[in-house]
Amino acid sequence: MMPKPITLSIFDIFKIGPGPSSSHTIGPMLAAADFVDRLGKFGLKGGVAPDALEVSLYGSLASTGKGHGTHRAILGGLLGWRPETCDCDALLVLFPSDSESYEISVAGSIVDFSVRNIHFVSGDADAPYQNTLDFKLFAKGELLVSERYFSIGGGFIKRDGDSDPSPIDVPYKYSNMREFRKITRKTGLSLSEIMMENELAVSGMSVSEVENGLDDLLAAMTNSVDNGLKADGLLPGPIGLLRKARYLFESAGNCEHAAERALARLNAYALAASEENAAGRRIVTAPTSGASGVLPGLAYMFRSEFGVPDGRARSGLLAAALIGFVAKSNASIAGAEVGCQGEVGVASSMAAAFAATANGCDVRCLENAAEIALEHHLGLTCDPIDGYVQVPCIERNAVGAVTAFNAYILASAGDPVRQKITFDEVLEAMLETGVDMSRNYKETARGGLAVCCVCC
Ligand code: SF4
Question: Which residues make Cβ contacts (< 8 Å) with residue 48, sequence separation at least 6?
């Protein structure tokens, strides 16, 4: 069977929303909002008035959901909030206690909802995706409606039973990097031109709307770094982790050598956005929330220190989106499926593609940069301590940004066609490694640092 052409939108891979986790925060909020919306639209047969709502979480949503704020995200979604517009501060103070109850308007009735109505179920649901959510509405103890959703990584959700959306006809059909390269050779078009034409077909937006959207994403990335550089104090949760970005940025000025100063600042930028994510503040998924410091940190450096103009930064973002599309379509960007190689590993390859493109490299060179960045993240497990996107996640974002920069430097020298491994091949290796990886290392907090480190 021929692989389907990629028809993702740039604004699917880059989403603005609250931290700390795209699959545990953004996805559940969208699922809860969709559940309420659908019942609002279609109502209930026979005019039965529901009086109870229960939500069950399975997979890593159950094991690490509390640490990721999944319960608050679900409540926010049930209240009609959306990730891109919700008040992150208001989200953080939902459910101050287990007894706090909220009125949810659903199917024409008001039902009370507290954290006690959310069930963190140990063991897997019998479902194709491990991050599964069940929403059930009752009247006098009788089940009225049950809907199942899957949070499939990067803030993407699927409703059980929904058929695949009808195919979108994009002008340039590719399913991997080899086919994308072929299109560039045949048409002579640039990466940006191809990505833009396809985006217009997928999103129905105009060129100026897409460009404004890209500028909004770059601005949101910049804000996440700026806010992180201003903040200090402890991050939420039992680990007691102190923010470090601001201190690293300030101490960078004292480094003796220019290279050391630059490296310290790049680390600080990636830490800053990543700490904002851990604090539940507004970030941009790139491709996930857990990895939202890598590309934003590197892009911040390129724009604020290297003076990369906006047009080049937009092209860099399109190149990063291309790498994210290919990774999501041929492997996975979910830590719960393939470990952290799919999150920080893919983020690093997207950032390497950004760096190469922003510096004027061609498609082969940016692909090589992305390949090198991902190759050296192969096998990276996901083992967040106590389920919080803090340790090892925050420092890992900084290391991912530095690796991305290094991968671009390695790729930009020599003849790009002599690179031995392609991005498609390294993705295949990542997927195979992810399939072989023990479940303990897939966002369950049941292996690695999560069990070997006693810090809370
Ligand atoms: S270890 Fe990686 S994949 Fe796992 S939660 Fe942290 S950033 Fe995400």
Answer: 139, 144
